[in-house]
Specification:
The complex is a heterodimer of chains A (282) and B (263). Chain A has 15 helices and no strands. Chain A is mostly helical. Chain A has a domain of 197 residues: ABC transporter involved in vitamin B12 uptake, BtuC. Chain B is α/β, with parallel strands linked by helices. Helix content of chain B is 32%, strand content 27%. Chain B has nine helices and eleven strands. In chain B, the strands form three sheets. Chain B has a six-stranded mixed sheet, with helices on both faces. Chain B has a three-stranded antiparallel sheet with strand order 2-1-4, with helices on one face. Chain B has a two-stranded antiparallel sheet with strand order 10-11. In chain B, α2 runs parallel beside α5, α4 crosses α5 and α5 packs parallel to α6. Classes of the chains: A mainly alpha (282), B alpha/beta (263). Chains A and B meet through α9 and α10 of A and β5, α2 and α3 of B.
Chain lengths: 282, 263
Amino acid sequence: MMDWLLAPLSYPFMVRGLIASLLVGTVCAVLGTYVVLKGMAFFGDALAHAILPGVAVAYLAGWPLFAGALITGIGVAVGIGYLSRRGQLKEDTAIGILFSGAFALGIALLSTVEAYTVDLTHFLFGNVLGVSTADLWTTAALGGIVLLLVAALYKEFLVMAFDPVLAQVLRLPTTALHYLLLVMLAATVVVALQTVGVALTVAMLVTPAATAYLLTRRLLPMMALAAFLGSLSAVAGLYLSFYINVASGPAVVLICTALFLLALLLSPRRGLVWRRSRQSGG
Amino acid sequence: MRGCEVLRVEGVTVGYDGRPVLEEVSFSIFGGEQVAVVGPNGAGKSTLFKAIAGLLPLWSGRISVFGCDPHREPVEISYVTQRSEVDLSFPVTVADVVMMGRVGQMGWLRWPSRADRDAVREALAQVGLEGLADRQIGELSGGQQQRVFIARALAQGADLLLMDEPFAGVDATSEQAILDLLGRLREKGLTILLSTHDLNLAADRFDRVLLLNRRLIAQGPPEEVFCPEVLQRAYGGQLAIWEHERGLVMLGDGHCSMGEEGR
């Protein structure tokens, strides 16, 4: 068993991959708590797809990918926030327009490269085993800033998420906090890009948080459990991919999904089994 | 505070999407008063509360609370909205919800202090829910949830309390608890503006009544406002009135559609 666990660690790329997975699993799950509670899953998915053109431009120009992704991500997040707040379009329509347009632009840009399918696959589905030490530092810095902000503004974000009217009555700067959360979400998506890729990022945001939602009844425990489940899934998925040779991103997401289904069945109070036995018990 | 002008509304016109809901409404509320706002569905009661709380931009007119403009300056107002506006499956306990009322006082980068926790406990005791502090908010009955939101407004500690339809869809126990609370708050001198469908309750328990239907139809002590001619002007044919040995008995449309407005 120990050998089984330790064997992958003799490869430096696996060690870097594991550290990256832990970071991504934690940061995504913590911010994902707000995504789940505020019903922003579609927004998170769109944001992940919409950063592709920024990544493509950075890639073609030889700039750091993180920078390209972060700038586009923040731009798109603020753009969607602005369009939907103006009230001319419903939010999901605004998201749909910006997200598909930006995604198409990203693929169009990448398709100008000759052997683009390999690179595209990495962007779409992640390449956690290709994480460099520099990537790792960027991931840790961005993720650390996001987690710090979540902790520092915990009570303000809680009021905003639970009761936006109270936030206004208490004269909290609701617009600034709203945009800050969107920017934090953009940073989180960028962090997740390398590990699970554009297409599966939403799973890292939503699935561990949803599992934790089924098992807890206060925000702080929900965040802590989501972070634990997210990082556990990320590490377990990586081992799975090492031993049975499936792609790492999908392996991570499949473990997240399995844990969710387990909680859905067995959770006390909210689980299907519990409800069934309550019904039959009268 | 008692007897001074706490709230002044002057010629206020306000609405949504280019459609006015309230026009040219003017009145004042004085310290320690308990005032009921009544009127048919769609009369603009909730809109009036939102305007006073500074949540809706005024089209014209002025509102001042303790001499300040709530649309420009931070003014302490506690506001109990209709319950349907929040997500009750949210993972927060009753105590967490009440603690939210303290967030304004706590300030940035602070966690709740002992004083904050005491204020939460005291507020929950005021509404008779001290035993339920650790329950998830969604596990409570509608009436208990309403009392939690009132406790949150009390924990906020403002001197002006706005309550929008606190009795809508509430069970008898909670209604009694809220009425008892109003009695205690009267002794404390808290100023309260409350909207309700229940004209009989407004007549029995409040110092003054504002009768609203897009405009302010009448204001004054209940015995002056609640006479058939005045009520007819606000409700048209939607109100049945009987003369009773103890006074008027009134049945408005609100009784047939309790709590429907917020859904």
